[in-house]
Amino acid sequence: MSRYVVVDxxxxxxxxxxxxxxxxxxxxxxxxxxxxxEDYKVIDKFSSYVKPSFGKIDPFxxxxxxxSNDNIKDASDIQTVLGKFFRWLPxxxxxxxxxxxxxxxxxxxxxxxxxxxxxxxxxxxxxxxCQKEFGEKLxxxxxxxxxxxxxxxxxxxxxxxxxxxxxxxxxxxxxxxIRTEEEFKLNPYYETAHNDSEAEALTFSMGDxxxxxxLAVG
Length: 218
Description:
By secondary structure, this protein is an alpha/beta fold. It has 10 helices and 5 strands.
């Protein structure tokens, strides 16, 4: 059995004029991670702000993440923080995140900055997409947001959404539930409400189809 590290990255936006120097739309400003043991229990946590080199924290990102420019002004750069992260990370831990976007961000950002991060490529090879696994477990093609999936599975959350450590912890709770519950399923009240809203959106009469058309024969 493996241990797992659930990762969540928070990013700021990179302006178009700065993309001449750094060809990525976003830049990492926080790394949050939670380590799970072989029984999917939380045993350790990691969190660090990252000082961006090209992006800025605008009012939208500050409101979304709760991260301000004051939080990152004395933070280390991405290479230093990733160094700390990989020293903390057990060699046998399999990385997990909600969707594949965090994996892609790590690879693209380190590539564009010409950074050499030992073990990053190996870790990227075994990365697990929790969002994909969630859909497969439910046999559903719907692309759930993390917030929606947490509500739908009765996971009570604490802390601010879009904080790296908070999102990593909540994703870890969901991942544990996916892996350990034999009959994994949605909250029946959520599922009923969701199905009813979909049915309502798809229901229309033949009269609706022809509303506004002049069908009179001249």
